[in-house]
């Protein structure tokens, strides 16, 4: 097995990539995951039509920094012409890859005919991809799909073949239908079927939460790269863990003190990069702080307090209190 894969001319380590997650995987999040070994990152999804109408958030969402490379900018839309025009605009930001979202299940995206709604219209999906590929020139275009619209419409292999024919350089597959949203179990068999249907790289996504499940995804599906989404919540260390698992090396989990230190560093990134005042930036940071505390004694109460944070100083104090709680419990249980 090669240590790298190629998407177009882009070389990516064959470990684990960070999935695009709207409202979560902003630049601060991507930088934290890259620091701990994410092989490849993708932007939050950006509306193709919004870009064409000079949406004020375009620069914020599409900017690619050298620290994040290799990185894709992800677009969503349901009209080939708008997608082509959006690609041309995005190219000014020099992404390594352009990704098209055909998997988002949320109603406000699906309602426009975009995201996973395109799983119901293979012909239109191929037309959108072909328009993007034509506009992108030498920049590879990839597509992220789901297993299908519902249990009666599992068509990911058919969709993948059509997208390959339209010029897609790789396909990422989330092993759930649109109807499942994020519930139930991801179906690795669908990802394996897609891998067997196309000759371009296939990226497997769904239910990868640790090193063992990452290794299992590779082994069970034959995919070329694994993509991690919710498994990275409050856990950028997962990329270090997956790399160790794939190399057969021992993984030493972070101590609570390290997790809290990284949490505070992540919050500082959010404040510095958001362009907002500290209080507003802390609104963005609250969910991340809560995720870093998952799985510990008393974490439910502390997560609730995370959602009240309004300053970095408060986050520091809460982290110190959380560490003290765990230490006192260890002493009492000794």
UniProtKB/TrEMBL annotation:
It is an enzyme of class 1 (oxidoreductase). It catalyses: a 5,6-dihydrouridine in tRNA + NADP(+) = a uridine in tRNA + NADPH + H(+); a 5,6-dihydrouridine in tRNA + NAD(+) = a uridine in tRNA + NADH + H(+). Its cofactor is FMN. PROSITE patterns: UPF0034 (PS01136). FMN binds at residues 20-22, 74, 144, 174, 229-230. Keywords: Flavoprotein, FMN, NADP, Nucleotide-binding, Oxidoreductase, RNA-binding, tRNA processing, tRNA-binding. Residues 18-320 form the DUS-like FMN-binding domain. GO terms for molecular function: flavin adenine dinucleotide binding; tRNA binding; tRNA dihydrouridine synthase activity. Its EC number is 1.3.1.-. It comes from the Bacteria. The active site is at 104 (proton donor). Catalyzes the synthesis of 5,6-dihydrouridine (D), a modified base found in the D-loop of most tRNAs, via the reduction of the C5-C6 double bond in target uridines. PANTHER family: TRNA-DIHYDROURIDINE(47) SYNTHASE [NAD(P)(+)]-LIKE. Belongs to the dus family. This is tRNA-dihydrouridine synthase. The lineage of its organism: Bacteria, Bacillati, Bacillota, Clostridia, Eubacteriales.
């Amino acid at each position: 097995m090669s240590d790298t894969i190629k998407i177009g001319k882009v070389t990516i380590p064959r470990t684990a990539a960070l999935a695009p997650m709207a409202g979560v995987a902003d630049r601060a999040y991507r930088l934290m995951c890259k620091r701990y070994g994410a092989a490849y990152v993708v932007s939050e999804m950006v509306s193709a039509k919004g870009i064409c109408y000079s949406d004020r958030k375009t620069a914020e969402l599409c900017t690619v920094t050298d620290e994040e490379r290799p990185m894709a900018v992800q677009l969503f839309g349901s009209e080939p012409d708008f997608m082509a025009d959006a690609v041309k605009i995005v190219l000014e930001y020099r992404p390594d890859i352009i990704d098209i979202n055909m998997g988002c299940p949320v109603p406000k995206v699906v309602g426009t005919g975009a995201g996973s709604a395109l799983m119901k219209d293979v012909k239109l999906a191929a037309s959108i991809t072909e328009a993007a590929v034509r506009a992108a020139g030498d920049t590879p275009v990839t597509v992220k799909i789901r297993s299908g619209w519902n249990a009666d419409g599992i068509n990911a292999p058919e969709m993948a073949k059509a997208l390959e024919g339209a010029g897609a350089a790789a396909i990422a597959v989330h092993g759930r239908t649109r109807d499942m949203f994020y519930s139930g179990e991801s179906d690795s068999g669908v990802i394996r079927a897609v891998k067997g249907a196309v000759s371009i790289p296939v990226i497997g996504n769904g239910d990868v939460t640790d090193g063992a499940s990452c290794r299992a995804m590779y082994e069970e599906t034959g995919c070329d790269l694994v993509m991690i989404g919710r498994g990275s919540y409050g856990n950028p260390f997962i990329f270090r863990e997956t790399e160790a698992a794939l190399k057969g090396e021992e993984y030493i989990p972070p101590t609570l003190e390290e997790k809290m230190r990284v949490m505070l560093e992540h919050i500082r990134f959010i404040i510095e990069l958001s362009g907002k005042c500290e209080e507003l930036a802390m609104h963005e940071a609250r969910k991340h702080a809560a995720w870093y505390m998952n799985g510990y004694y008393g974490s439910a109460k502390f997560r609730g307090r995370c959602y009240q944070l309004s300053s970095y100083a408060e986050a520091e104090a809460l982290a110190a209190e959380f560490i003290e709680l765990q230490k006192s419990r260890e002493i009492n249980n000794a």
